[in-house]
Specification:
Number of strands: 0
Number of helices: 7
Radius of gyration: 16 Å
Length: about 170
C-alpha cells in the first residue's frame, strides 16, 4: 500500500483500506469530490449551476475544466454573499480538481483557504449551536485530511504529519 492509501492509514488505520484491485478507497465521510458530496450547496442560483457542471466534468476526469468551473462558481458565489459553509464546499471541490489534475501546490493553497473560511465562520457566528459545532469539526477534519494527503503526495512529510496532528486534535 503506497501513496494516499499509506497516508490515510497513518491518519485513520481502520479506514485506510484498499479494495480487491489494490486501489485506494476513500471512506465516504472523507470524500469531498462532487460525485460523493451528499449535500451540494443549495439555493445558489448561477453558482449552483456552475458547481453542478463542474461536478459533471470532475466525474468524467476532466479536472482542468472542472477547476475552471469551480473557480467561476466560487466567484459567483462570493459576489452574491452566500454562506461560508457553501464557500468551503466549493473550495474543497476546487482543491480536489487541482489535486487530481496534478497541480498539488494549487490544491494545498485552496485547502488552506478553505481552512481559513471555516475558522472565520466559527469566529463570526453569534448563534453557535451543538449541531453547528459538529458540522464545524466534521468539515475541519475533512479539510485537514485533504490538505494532508496533498502534502503527502508532494512528499512533504513534515507538513503532512502536521495536518495529521491537526486532524487528530479535531477528532
Amino acid at each position: 500500500m503506497g501513496g494516499a492509501a499509506s497516508f490515510l492509514a497513518y491518519f485513520c488505520p481502520r479506514d485506510g483500506v484498499s479494495n480487491d484491485t489494490g486501489q485506494f478507497v476513500i471512506p465516504y465521510r472523507f470524500s469531498y469530490n462532487a460525485q460523493f458530496l451528499g449535500d451540494k450547496p443549495v439555493d445558489l442560483s448561477y453558482a449552483n449551476v456552475l458547481y453542478n457542471q463542474a461536478g459533471e466534468y470532475f466525474e468524467k476526469a476532466d479536472y482542468k475544466k472542472a477547476a475552471e468551473l469551480y473557480i467561476e462558481a466560487l466567484e459567483e458565489h462570493k459576489e452574491n454573499h452566500h454562506t461560508d459553509m457553501d464557500t468551503l464546499r466549493i473550495q474543497c471541490a476546487l482543491g480536489n480538481a487541482y489535486k487530481y489534475s496534478g497541480e498539488i501546490d494549487l490544491a494545498i493553497d485552496t485547502y488552506t483557504e478553505a481552512i481559513g473560511t471555516l475558522k472565520s465562520t466559527k469566529e463570526l457566528d453569534n448563534d453557535w449551536t451543538e449541531e453547528k459545532e459538529r458540522e464545524y469539526y466534521s468539515e475541519l477534519i475533512n479539510v485537514y485530511y485533504l490538505r494532508g494527503t496533498a502534502h503527502f503526495e508532494k512528499n512533504d512529510l513534515y507538513l503532512a504529519d502536521e495536518d495529521r496532528s491537526n486532524l487528530s486534535r479535531a477528532c
